[in-house]
User: What shape does this take?
Amino acid sequence: MTSLTEKRAARTQPETRTIRGKVHLREHLMGWLFVGPFGVVFLAFLIAPLAYALYLSLFQKKLIGGTSFVLFDNYVKAFTDPSFLSGAWFVIRFSLVSIPVQIIIALAMALILDSVTTLFARFSRLMIFLPYAIPTVIGAVMWGFLYSRGFGPLTDIFGLFGATAPDFLGSDLIFYGLLNVVTWQWAGYYMIILYAALQGVDPTLYEAARMDGAGRWQIATRIKIPLIAPALILILVFSLIGTLQFFNEPQILRYLAAGTIGSDFTPNMYAYQQAFSLANFNYGSAISFALGGIVFICVYAFLFFTRKRRSFL
Amino acid sequence: MTDHSSLRAGARRPQRYLPMQILLGFLVIYFLVPFWWVIVNSSKDAPGLFGGGNTLWFTDQIDYLGNLRQLFTYDGGIYLRWILNSTLYAIAGGVGATVLAVMAGYGFAKYRFAARRFSFAVVLGALMVPATALVIPTFIMFSRLGLTNTVWAVILPSLLNPFGVYLMHVYARDAVPDELLDAARVDGAGELRTFFQIALPLMRPAVVTVLLLSAVASWNNYFLPLAMLSDNRLFPVTVGLGLWQGIASANNAGTTSLWSLIILGSLVSVIPLIIAFFSLQRHWRGGLSVGGLR
Assistant: This one.
């Protein structure tokens, strides 16, 4: 069989085109053989549902007259629906606060763990990462207990100082209550990714910088952080996608925070309620699709503004 | 990598980092507090839980065994079923997604086939599709096919892992030299044999990473099974505990014992994952750096 190296050589020599053609056919087949099974799943569970959701979102079901084609009426309805708009505004606001908080904490932890090599540092690394192994639902259940007035420790702790405990499940502080749950859950995971990237940096760079008189702070900000910028962009994009789809934590905490978290607290919760509680699949699909549009716009805007850096795409 | 670490260690004076170690200590406490609360409070019975007292310390009555027996016998042992369901979904979804991702990543990295660039760009674009946006249309498609409220409704959509394909692509591109594959081909190995005997062993760290990430994603999944399943005997443990949480909150007075079941249930449900992570950490750490680095 003709080898791939020959094929590559053939690319620069047009006179051996016949060999190249034969190899190509075989390569096409093998390539599609390897990619094909994933391709089938991709078409069945991503492309088809997306197309179907788009289709569904263009119809409306009425009590009288049945289902009718309404084009973008559902989207017009969504973008004038206070429930959807307040949910969307909440997740955007929450992203703007929670993502920087998580990334800064994760970056600080990764930089510390990259420069401290004691046994305790290694132990801390594992413990900080531990929440990633916990399902977000269980994380929310656990923090819900810690927040609760009945059996959480906050009442005792604040009681020691004669103060009333803050109610993280009340409407004033729920933002911070959720911020804490999310940070606890994800900061360790981001830390591990950044830490792995830092470990891949060639330490002779630090030596050279030290010779030139750079301090530890300068090494961190001028060498380490720029070199792991691709990893930072990667986790920023993933946390943005995840946060805009916020569902699990508020859905679980709403049992404990009755009255604070409504069924339209985030767009995803609202879509779930429309589709599965009210059987309004057309409007639910439209909300999901509108949310997907918001995610796309936010991610592309973000990638556009950071494209001068080497992006992971 | 070994050169790096010895170089690092040599250039280091650990005592200067004491403030940072103290800071790490506080961070560790923060990250462990919820675990500690759950460990302490799953030892208590209902009066111990609600009787006031220190919520961060044990009462005189430490009754793990009694609580465990209650947990595993409540409602005909439904909790054990949930754990087994979660295990099934995590293994089937994780293994399936990994096999597909490894093959596709290798295919994208090592074969120049028609429409390769376009297809790969589509897969990367799919990273940005909110997974939950797919749940509603998938639910309707499955309900037409009579697949809702079956294990397939949870397993089949979990097979999709575009990020796994991306990770495997990057790793295969860098860790599997073309020359080695060509040498195997010259020696007469077929494409499949080359893949299994040459490429796969070289990709192992990334394979373990993708396996772990997809298994965890399936184990943690909540939205998909919540939407797809109505029979609580098919629930994974996340949806099951969510159900209990809802019941317990709805009639707080009547079902106080359910709270201690939820607390112990959350503790028991995280133990398998913690063990998996710690025992496999040497294998997956190498693969995780890939996604961030390049």
Summary: Residues 1-18 of chain A have pLDDT under 50 and may be disordered.
